[in-house]
Amino acid sequence: MNKMIELIQNHRSIRKFEDKLLSDEQIKTIVESAQAASTSSFVQAYSIIGVKDKQKKERLAELAGGQAYVAENGHFFVFCADLYRHQLIAENYSQDASEALESTEKFMVAIIDATLAAQNAVLAAESMGLGAVYIGGLRNQLTEVCELLKIPPYVIPLFGVAVGYPAQQPDKKQRLPLQHIYHEDEYNQDKVAYYQQLNDYDEEISAYYQKRTNGKRKDTWTGQMAGLLAKPARMYMKKFVEQQGFNKR
Amino acid sequence: MNKMIELIQNHRSIRKFEDKLLSDEQIKTIVESAQAASTSSFVQAYSIIGVKDKQKKERLAELAGGQAYVAENGHFFVFCADLYRHQLIAENYSQDASEALESTEKFMVAIIDATLAAQNAVLAAESMGLGAVYIGGLRNQLTEVCELLKIPPYVIPLFGVAVGYPAQQPDKKQRLPLQHIYHEDEYNQDKVAYYQQLNDYDEEISAYYQKRTNGKRKDTWTGQMAGLLAKPARMYMKKFVEQQGFNKR
Question: Is the CB of residue A13 less than 8 Å from the CB of residue A134?
Fold first, then answer.
């Protein structure tokens, strides 16, 4: 196993950072790494907002559901799906591009582009000895996030990434069995095998929680998922992304 | 600059591979690297189909618009947004999870999860001396792709990744200026600066094409984008993703 694969496979989300800011040089290296990712038909349909302002970070922490590490970190990045510059280009070419811009296809392209860039950023940061955590909670209240960060139409903040000097070393959480995620030549729809894999995985995850909490917690993964599915979250999203100009046709 | 950042920043899409298959060990390492990526609320809402069957690869190459490297490579991965196992879990808990599963939010979560995993896979492959290219053309005809790979509901193939031993060393394409992609504290909506950046970038990209083609091509980036926007692509996508159970509310 080479160093890069070791780094990739040793990933943990870091949620507690030392009180030390990233340098501008570090930020630049991280953003340049993000930009080096592949992009669908070279569209580069994303942008990144780096938040330094302490008050803005605190407000974002509130909006994301009160996670302290959104404010307390070395730097906070907001990754956005972005077709705003494409809209400006169309304007400049006196072209009505709304059909393309508003399509579900382009919505997907912009999410994929932004996410490829983000994962490059996270790995670049980790390779520099920094830690990182994705903040999906940013999607809790996107209207407010957009106001705060002056986000124009055709842009959707997708998630945050808090980066900084790690002040914790959490355990690695075991993923689903490889054969559950990875299929060969066709999707394996054998439900009996599927449920068996989930069952085995539940036992593994439950043992992990029991060990970590001295027996206090023994959640299973399917139990967690069932709980999550029972509380539909962020149901305003469809309307919100349409208001931003995406996913309308 | 450390080795990892060098690797990330030296990324090029490889579209010509030696006639040599990946070993099962290499495939396993790549998939395990994919699995190590972060996942929203630990949902692991993706799956990967590795295609070895030569006929299936050739059919996928056709469906993706006739790109030879979809069939001719060391291994072909299809990355899917996947809430199928979550649907099975809900069934098992006698729970109606359709509101959550069908939400635009969960559609985004599944795309993000699959894409984080994919970028880990690509970088793992590159660190092993392999090359890779994303195949967005897979989305040209997803109904046929789903038939071929026996994809169940609540699963959407998002893109392919062809991996193999590189048989070419393409130039690196210059990305948008950093300050165009990266904003500080708020989104910079200064249109004059924006158009100026695009103009500078157009000159750079045009010089790149002229050099590469001995003056035959001199496209600008905004020209390419305007061309792309003028031909709305994959407009069946909204209906398709809804039929698969996603993005309905």
Answer: yes
Mutation site, B135, B183, B202, B239, interface A, largest A CB count within 10 A: B183
Say whether A103 and B234 touch across the interface (CB within 8 A): yes
Chain B environment of A148 (Cβ under 8 Å): 186
Q: What is the pLDDT of residue A1?
A: 85
Answer for the pair A26, A32: CB distance below 8 angstroms, yes or no.
no
* Same-domain pairing of A63 and A104: yes
pLDDT beyond 90 at A218: no
Answer yes or no: do A162 and A102 share one domain. Answer: yes
Q: Any idea which of A199-213, A231-245, B58-72 has the lowest mean pLDDT? A: A199-213
A134 CB neighbours in chain B (<8 A) are 38, 40
Q: Are residues A160 and A203 in the same domain?
A: no
Mean model confidence pLDDT for chain A: 96
The reply to whether residue B195 touches residue A127, judged by beta carbons under 8 angstroms, is no
**E strand spans, chain B:** 46-51, 75-82, 131-135, 155-164, 182-184
Q: How far apart are CA B21 and CA B30, in angstroms?
A: 14
Report if residue B80 sits inside a domain. yes
The answer to whether the CB atoms of B183 and A47 lie below 8 A apart is yes
| B48 and B157 part of one domain | yes
In terms of residue numbers, what domain contains A209?
A: 178-218
Residue A223 covered by a domain? no
The CATH number linked to A41 is 3.40.109.10
How confident is the model over A191-214, as pLDDT tens digits? Answer: 999 999 999 999 999 999 998 889
